[in-house]
Amino acid sequence: MNRKEFIFKSGIRSASLLFATHTHFLSSKISKINKRSQNNWATDLEIQIDKLRISQLGNEFIWGVANAAFQVEGATKVDNKLTSIWDDFSQKKGNIKNGDTAEQATDFYHRYAEDIKLTKELGFSHFRFSISWSRVVSEDLYTENPLGINYYIQFLKEIKAAGLNAWVTIYHWDLPSIIEKQGGWSNRRIIEYFKRFVEICANHFGEYTDRWFIVNEPAAFTALGYLSGYHAPGKKNPFAYLKSVHHVCLSIAEAGRLLRIKCPQKKIGIAYSYSVVHAEEPSDSKAANRVDAFLNRLFVEPFLGLGYPDQDLPALKRLKNYFEPGDEDRLKFNFDFVGVQYYFRVVVGRSSWVPFFGGREIPASKRNVATNSMLREIYPEGLYNCLMRFKDYGFKDIVVSENGVCYRDEVNDGQILDSKRIEFFQSHLDQLVRAKSEGVPINGYFVWSLTDNFEWSEGYSDRFGIVYIDYSTQKRIIKNSGYWWQNLLTTPSR
Q: Per the count of CB atoms within 10 A, which of 54, 56, 157, 484 is most buried?
């Protein structure tokens, strides 16, 4: 999401059809928001045009916002919370831009009621967040931490009292350091630790939870954490990476089966990162296929009974070294729904110098394309490509569990004039509607994110929120993109 900087530094980095006449009109009708005041940022006509865009998704379509515990909570040493790998990683010089840490973040731990109220005011009805593993267990990893559990219970009660639906991500990257000292995800023992964590979540939070995401972006936290070292725990070990891939997949499947017993009425899903991969030239297609297998297919196909995609990426054949009897069947799990998270396209060219992949990413900065502040390409059609692929996999219930864009927003006269972010949302919603019109069972969309936050190794400079955070005061300021969403979701259609 940094997972938005998902091509790791060793390997591949170092290692539309128009569906209706009025939709064509929509795409060309971009508001000049920076010329309007906060309270008059769009004309009534423009609001109605945008509402016409999303009306094709249906009245039951789910609109939500998302965040993640470590990125917003702060309070890293409060209520007997254990140290996580991200606490450790953030303290090491050079790991995080500008030396930023998440010790305070957005202070969501103490201000969640304010952010829940904002969510409701902006017109969203679904709130996605994660549980910090380090908050809910004690040092033996099996005994519960009642203070951490009570925090999430009170938070969930606040969500329900506001009339919002709770979408709970069980694991969003903040692994307890105690587990990492034993090898983390590269140690098969983690499967049992993870099952215990999931059991605690099910026992205490299940009655308040509307849907579960077992993990967030497994392809990202394994590659960035154990292969490139760009994220916590900062390892650069291909063997630890391969072990982690297999153990994560087994842990997800085991957790899914446990949740199905513990919470039989609740839908169980997973949140996948996805970057559409294109070859720079037709002759680069094999390299692009290898990168695609690594980025997009590795954590999808095993659960479908297709195995790891080692035919297109032969290096993955080594995963067999870590199989134990019965693992092939244990990997299979039928999710009730799937979340897909799309931010940017990857373009690949051949390179004999890059091991395993035989290809390298062609940076967006060298392709003269629009980018976000992390210099990742803004390519709306990629969302359509992503959704079509998951339809082809056979999934019957799909949500976009994250989509958004980062810029280095500034406050001008009390306003944040982020017209480019609104254009981003408009163009991607066009692709969402396009996919829906072509039979994709797309049923929801979550904005990443409600507020600016700690963006992992990128720190605080790049802002994704539709609500601005003044980190010196923790003041929340709704950006123009937030007002755009509010008008989109709350203004009556005519």
A: 484
DSSP 88: H
Catalytic residue from among 217, 254, 361, 455: 217
Provide the 10 A C-beta neighbour count for residue 15. Answer: 21
Q: Which tokens sit at 222?
A: 């394994």
- Please, are residues 369 and 379 in contact by the beta-carbon 8 Å criterion? yes
**pLDDT tens digits, one per residue of 237-290:** 999 999 999 999 999 999 999 999 999 999 999 999 999 999 999 999 999 999
Look up residue 381 and give its amino acid.
E
The CA-to-CA distance between both ends of the chain, in Å, stands at 37
What is the number of residues in the chain? Answer: 494
Q: What's the confidence (pLDDT) of residue 494?
A: 65
State the virtual CA torsion across 283, 382, 52, 56 in degrees, nearest 10: 90
Residue 41 is predicted with a pLDDT of 55
Annotated domain spans of the chain: 3-490
pTM: 0.92
Per DSSP (E only), the strands in 240-316 are: 267-274, 277-279
Q: Locate tokens 């795409």: which residue?
A: 27
Q: Does domain 3-490 have CATH number 3.20.20.80?
A: yes
Cα separation values, 472 from 59, 93, 388, 468, 475, Å: 40, 22, 43, 12, 8
458 tagged catalytic:
no
402 is catalytic: yes
Who contacts 273 (Cβ-Cβ below 8 Å, separation ≥6)? 1, 3, 6, 217, 219, 220, 295, 341, 343
Beta bridge partners of 475: 470
- Exposed, middle or buried, 238 (CB in 10 Å: 0-12/13-18/19+)? middle
